[in-house]
Design a protein that fits this description.
This protein is an alpha+beta fold and about 90 residues long. The protein has a domain at about 15-75. Helices cover about 35% and strands about 20% of the residues. It contains four helices and three strands; from the N terminus they run αβαβαβα. It has helices at about 5, 25-35, 45-50, 65-70; strands at about 15-20, 40-45, 55-60. A three-stranded antiparallel beta sheet has the order 1-3-2.
Length: about 90
Amino acid sequence: MNELTAAGFDPEQYVAVARFEDPIEAQMAKGMLEAAGLECFLHGESANQLLGAAFRARLMVHRRDEDVARELLPAPEVYDPSAAEDGE
């Protein structure tokens, strides 16, 4: 049993509400949720800094806060190849 589960932390009660390749964006989103009073943490942040795009940090919140967190976070950018300029 590790320290978190001994302290009553149940990882099954947390869900990922966002994934980030950029550690700075991850920290900004985490700060936004914390400022709103939501308990959250970044899972895989260290691996993300070492491996970059090969591993995305996940922003985790308690299940009870999932809907609020998703409302607060900006919508993820969706790449639209038809909107990209081809330089001609």
